[in-house]
Amino acid sequence: MYRPLSALIASLLLPLASHAGNTPLEPGIEFVHHDWFLACDNTGTCRAAGYGPENADSLLGLMLERPGGPGTAVKARLRVGEDGESAMPEGEMRLQVNGRDLGAVQDTGADEAVTLRPAQVETLLAALPGRARIEVVDSRGTRWPISDHGAAAVLLKMDEAQGRVGTPGALVRRGTRAEASVPAAAAKPVIMRGVLAATRPGDSVLGGSKALRDALIATLGDSDDCPRLIEYTGTPEMVIQRLDDSHVLVQALCQMGAYNFSNGFWITRDQPPFAVEVVTLEAEGFSHEERTLYARYKGRGIGDCVSGSDWVWDGRRFQPSSVFSTGLCRGVPGGHWTLPTLVSEVR
What we know:
By secondary structure, the protein is an alpha+beta fold. The chain has 6 helices and 20 strands. The chain has a 5-stranded antiparallel beta sheet, covered by helices on one side. The chain has a 5-stranded antiparallel beta sheet with strand order 15-16-17-18-19, covered by helices on one side. It is elongated and about 70 Å long.
């Protein structure tokens, strides 16, 4: 089973009327065109990832990252993916754009402080909106390409998302509109973890309640997102987590696929009438220590593209705190990058 990120976003924005306080955090955007992938988060930072042509045996990844706000610079990182089978670049790697040597580059790895040099980034940005032959050449003379197919559309979408179209700082469609007109970046929102009440002896008994199971099913309507709960014929298998003096979190298996599964989570009163509220039907589990629901989904069985989301208990509700993807499925287990559309600081 694979659920697209749009479905995860929809599920994590379901309202919790009984526990609502402030408005739920909303993710930014994703956009895909050919060999390029864009993710912009809720602070205004955008990350555009380009890959080697799909059938070129190139496991390179290039990421261009730019914060929101006027006058911000673009940083670039390079990643040499590994799949355990394909050949890897050997010795010194040098970047070439349209046959022009731009000097040595290195795999920036997980260290976000290591980036390509500003002059290399400037040449990349000038070339990408048109036809650009981007290659990394190793010490043997082997060439490892990064595709330009889709780059122009993705960079234009980045400009649109950040409000840069028509300004001197736009990447694609520049103009004379004042740079100061670009919207400022938003601050990373802060979420405070709430306290969980202690478990009570009757909580485990509630996990076997047919009346509670029927109340959960009633929230599904015509949805087919939780067939395991509907079709289960034995004693209900529900996990109960005490939240506060009168509410509990209920977990029940919804779907089981070849390489993904999902649990449904509901907030309910601890006795009838249960007044059940759906949190999400597409999470994996709940971390008691972190007071967090989490979901991780593979796009393919080899796990070369993953999407995920998290919800943090703030004492009143489960607040969406993180949504991310690792980009296109390009044969590298775990993907090249973490590309968030929703970020927060959890304390």
